Amino acid sequence: MFVFMCAGCGAELTTSLSQVSLPVHARQSYGDGAQLPVLMESGTFAVDPDPWGGPWRMWDEIDPSEAEAPGIYAPVHALSDSTPGASVIAPGDIRGTRLIPEKRGGACCGLDGADGPNMACEACDLPVATRVDDCSLWQVVRLSSDAVHRVPVDGSHAVPLSWAELAESGEKTPPFEPIATWGGRWGSNHYWSWSPQWEAAAGHALAHLLVASQGQPVKVPDGLTADVFQRALDALLPAGTPKRRVVLAGPGQPSPDTGVDILLVPVHPQTGQTWTRAGPAASAYPVPLPLGVWLASPQPYLPVPASGRIPQDVLRDDPLPPHPNYLFKADRGTFQHTLVRLPAVRSPWLRTIVEQSTSADLF
After folding, report:
1. Of 125, 152, 144, residue with least CA distance to 8
2. 25 CB contacts (<8 Å, ≥6 apart)?
3. How far is Cα 168 from Cα 3, in angstroms, rounded to an integer?
4. Residue 201, Cβ neighbours under 10 Å: how many?
5. What secondary structure letter does DSSP report for 346?
6. Cβ–Cβ < 8 Å for 234, 218
7. How far apart are CA 201 and CA 327, in angstroms?
8. pLDDT of 94-145, one tens digit each?
């Protein structure tokens, strides 16, 4: 557990927080006027290793070797030139700060952080953080790494849960959810949609799936996993056989056989470590999925005649569960942010896919 303190005067700026993995949807911009919830669970923080926000440098101003130093291996529109390593927290966990009104940015429904740090320490007025709560953005406070430092809390030590405990008690992330909107003609409203978290998770995983494909066609498991990945893989990769085979793997799942090339595996929500397996499938490429998405990925089994009460996880058909009226699309921004940071993107065949994906109707 840690408390964050102002680097200027030493004032405490947060409640006690435990470190967790940075969510893959941390940089997502979703929809148009959507009301996204708070990014981080209360009582937690995560470190964003990449710079975020202005000032910006255009790609033609940067030498490719300079971009590769921080891990950018393919062209991007622009690179943030801000200080990396911000700690992201829930807005409700900040203390001893005030908003800087003139740093509102170009937001329409809240704060977007475009003008840089917009929160100052109440005690010494040092700009210490950036609050983001505009429409279509996840609500978060980003503590500047050069303006705060974290101090351990005496007598506290958080022990990460084991994989078995996570598989037993982990919360599934539903693939569909209602999305609230701001500022419509008739006021606040909502619509049923694919989950923004699923779209971001798919964008992150799709980048890894393309690398794992080695330029060959890929077959993912039928059901919900196919709904999420197969259309994009078929469009971006060549057709033909044989296909590289993908299976879900992780705690509580059957051991993969030797004919598996790629594994969809969970990421530990506290440590950020990807689940790994020894044995016949140890050489398969592990593609990371957030734990909640991984837990919800297997398709529910269909109901069968039975006596007694119906089990809770049987798919019911009355009333029919709501579904979006459009095909799944992975989050383009998360996909591109991930892919340009994988060294394999320097391969000519994968660089071609990157160029094609900018105009593909898959995102």
Report:
1. 125
2. 39, 138, 196, 197, 200, 201, 331, 334
3. 30
4. 27
5. G
6. no
7. 16
8. 999 999 988 877 777 889 888 889 999 999 999 999 999 998 999 999 999 9
**Residue where the block lists tokens 């900018």:** 358
Backbone angles phi, psi at 258, to 5 degrees: -75, -10
Q: How are strands ordered across the β-sheet holding 140-143? A: 18-19, 44-48, 86-89, 140-143, 127-132, 119-121, 97-99
The pTM of the full predicted model, rounded to 2 decimals, is 0.90
d(CA 328, CA 199): 8
Q: Please, which residues have CB within 8 angstroms of residue 4's CB and are 6 or more apart in sequence?
A: 12, 13, 14, 17, 45, 87, 89, 143, 148, 149, 150, 151
Phi then psi dihedrals of residue 122, to 5 deg? -65, -30
3-state secondary structure of 212: helix
Tokens of 104: 């509102």
Q: Which residue type sits at 285?
A: Y
| Spatial distance between the Cα atoms of 97 and 111, rounded to a whole number of angstroms | 16
Reading the block at residue 298, the tokens are 């297997």
216-275 per-position pLDDT tens digit: 999 999 989 999 999 999 999 988 877 899 999 999 887 777 778 999 999 999 999 999
Task: Give the torsion sign (CA, 58, 63, 64, 69).
Answer: negative
Task: Report strand pairing: 56-58 vs 262-267.
Answer: unpaired
Q: Give per-residue burial for 203-225: e unless 16+ CB within 10 Å, then b.
A: bbbbbbbbbbbbeeebbbbeebb
Of 293, 326, 295, give the one whose Cα is nearest residue 313: 295
CB 98, CB 118: distance < 8 Å: no
Structure tokens at 208: 């890894």
What is the C-alpha to C-alpha distance for residues 201 and 174, in angstroms, rounded to an integer?
12
